[in-house]
Specification:
By secondary structure, the chain is α/β, with parallel strands linked by helices. It is about 50% helix and about 15% strand. Helix 6 links the parallel strand 5 and strand 6.
Length: about 350
């Protein structure tokens, strides 16, 4: 069922059920690795979905007992496991729909896969509301400019990618394309559907960073009105330990910048290269800065359980537009540092008021 073809910018591309792609520095070995990975992750998710639903009469009482013993009246373990059950079934459904799209010859249809992504993210957000009581308020939707867009988003929790995909796809009606870490390939829906639409899975451990930046630029080519390229400039979820470690490295390289960024209290220092690559690829794109408050302390599963046990989760998302003519393209680094310091101050002020 597979076929081979040559296309511009991709010396070799092989497509099949999972839409395996080999391009640039990748080779046939990567196809084998992708196949092996999916032969583990897809059955594992399906098995998890079946086990979780069949054994509900067993694990729900056990989880409630664990919460009661820990004196957590909000039942965080129970609620998180209920969400995990919803997630596993939605993952299974997403993979099945992706398989059907391949069978009917629509594995290359961006429209069909964006529709699937919108369905998947909206159902996951509804599951978060139902099981964990997460509420989300969005401010600034009506201020999103026209044309292609580059979105620079804060990264504070495990839910950020999901929430931003829901924000841009469902609420804003845009077609998001993401710079994602390669580790997210172990999520079957992100792995399969995410490679059928213009995303780039970056290898953060790559020795050849130029190749990764070229991949980001290629991802953002041919963007038009309604397309948004999304990147998390911090590169990883923020917490105090990471912030101190990254700032120490910056101070060793650039004492002046390190001193300036020591003012950050909640965000991590932004990495300039990826954002700069997007600006290079889409010189006419307007910019959105997206930040949120409410996911603090939820950068690990342990943190999520702790926070769910302490408080209701109300996430406030702010969208701030920056028209491209006001972005100093020749000085992206200082501009991004300034924007990130401003966002950090706003996050701090918001947290002090609640």
């Amino acid at each position: 069922m597979n076929f081979i073809r040559f296309v511009k910018r991709k010396p070799l591309e092989i497509k099949g059920f999972g839409d395996f792609e080999v391009a640039g520095r990748d080779n046939l070995r990567n196809v084998g690795a992708t196949f092996k990975r999916r032969m583990v992750t897809v059955p594992a998710v399906v098995l998890a979905a079946v086990v979780l639903i069949v054994l509900i009469p067993v694990w729900v009482p056990l989880a409630v007992v664990a919460d009661v013993v820990r004196r957590k009246s909000r039942l965080p373990i129970t609620r998180l496991l209920l969400f995990a059950t919803c997630w596993a079934w939605l993952e299974t459904a997403g993979v099945l729909v992706a398989a059907v799209l391949w069978l009917v010859g629509k594995s290359s249809s961006h429209g069909a896969h964006y529709a699937l992504q919108r369905w998947w993210t909206s159902r996951l957000i509804a599951s978060l509301r139902l099981t964990c009581g997460v509420r989300i308020s969005v401010h600034g939707l009506d201020e999103i400019p026209t044309g292609p867009i580059v979105a620079l988003c804060r990264h504070a929790s495990l839910a950020d990618s999901l929430v931003s995909a829901w924000l841009f796809g469902t609420r804003a009606g845009l077609r998001p394309r993401y710079v994602l870490k390669r580790e997210l390939s172990y999520d079957p829906c992100l792995d399969i559907v995410g490679r059928r639409i213009p995303n780039y899975f970056v290898d953060r451990a790559a020795s050849d960073t130029r190749a990764e930046l070229d991949g980001i630029r290629a991802m953002a080519t041919e963007m038009s009105d309604g397309d948004v390229a999304v990147i998390f400039p911090e590169g990883t979820r923020a917490n105090p330990v990471k912030r101190d470690r990254i700032l120490a490295k910056i101070e060793n390289r650039d004492a002046e910048r390190g001193t300036q960024l020591r003012k950050l209290r909640h965000l991590l220092p932004p990495k300039v290269a990826g954002a700069s690559a997007l600006f290079d690829a889409v010189p006419n794109a307007n910019v959105l800065v997206v930040w949120h408050v409410g996911f603090e302390g939820m950068d690990t599963f342990g943190g999520i359980i702790e926070q769910l046990g302490q408080r209701s989760v109300h996430v406030h998302i702010a969208i701030e537009p920056h028209l491209r003519q006001h972005v100093p393209t020749a000085q992206i680094g200082p501009w991004l540092d300034s924007v990130w310091l401003d966002v950090d101050a706003k996050v701090h002020g918001f947290l002090e008021r609640i």
